[in-house]
Amino acid sequence: MLARTVENVYWLSRYLERAENTARIIGVNTNLLLDLPGGIAPGWLPLVDISGARAEFDQQYAGRATRGEERDVVTFLVADKANPGSICSSLHYARENARTLREILPTEAWELLNEFIGECTRNVDSAINKRTRFEFLKRIVVTLQTIAGMLDGTMNRNDAHTFGVLGRNLERADMTSRIVDVRSAQLLPAETPELRPFEAVQWMSVLKSLSGYQMYRLRMRTRVKRTDVLQFLLRDDQFPRSCQFCLTQIERSLNTLPRSESVLEVLADAARFIERAPLATLDQPGLHELIDRLQLHISNLHDMIAGNYFPSRMDGSRRMPSQAQAQGQSQTQRQTTLSFGEPAKA
Q1: For the whole model, what pTM was predicted?
Q2: 342 within a domain of the structure (yes/no)
Q3: H or E segment and range at residue 182
Q4: How far apart are the C-alpha atoms of 250 and 269, rounded to whole Å?
Q5: Range of the domain at 249
Q6: CA torsion sign, 88 to 302 to 300 to 173?
Q7: Average pLDDT score over residue span 265-290
Q8: Domain count of the fold of the chain
């Protein structure tokens, strides 16, 4: 199978997962601001931080009096074509990858994705309007879950499916760690006991950003508490969006691929790091440092996957490429054939 083919499947899965998670956090933030008193509400800029695009946002909206307001942030994260991480951009890149994969993708999944992108483009203003935002974002989440279900339920269990699973779970682990880091940084300070009842509301928003509140209650059988939420989102072996669960799925996929020993070593390092983290004793700066280090593990894991299986894409920087860089390079790279048994040859 062509290295370009499995790489495009890998990035298709990542773009679909990224668009879905972005829709989730925008919807949850809208509801969170209604639940908290005005003086302690986190606002909208934390969502830009979760996406990792703060520099691009600051540059684009520099000098504007409304910079950081709801309309600017929602427009940037949903519709801004100049933002490679926006929902519209992610869906566009997903379609471009899917277009090159039509011979191996289920026809129903391709048709639904293609039609849905046109629908999103026509109705994107619905995301800006508070009254229609919920239905627009819900439609994105449900449709992308449907597409993921089509791919998982009908694709042959071959290399293409394996790399799709790799991409989806690596993106999930990355987004979960970002949400935990940025959301927890916005929680109430310890010296405000009069606002302590609202702390549970904020941790609930962390769970809801990952559609994990109900599963948390079923799994932990306790009220929402900081340490238990961290345990659930970072270490749980049953919740599909926990970092540990995602790493386990990646390990299962890698075990089916040749030449995966070096990648599995990096993966094992990441898993051990999560297992040994002292979650119960971490203060907020310590949690931030832990997530930073976890992000490095995830980035290194991506680099090892790319180095092993997408050799024409690697450069000297060895860092995770941006969405735009990845898409542009995947469309122009050489037709490298990946023979699973020997190094890829140009």
Answers
A1: 0.85
A2: no
A3: helix 159-185
A4: 13
A5: 3-332
A6: positive
A7: 91
A8: 1
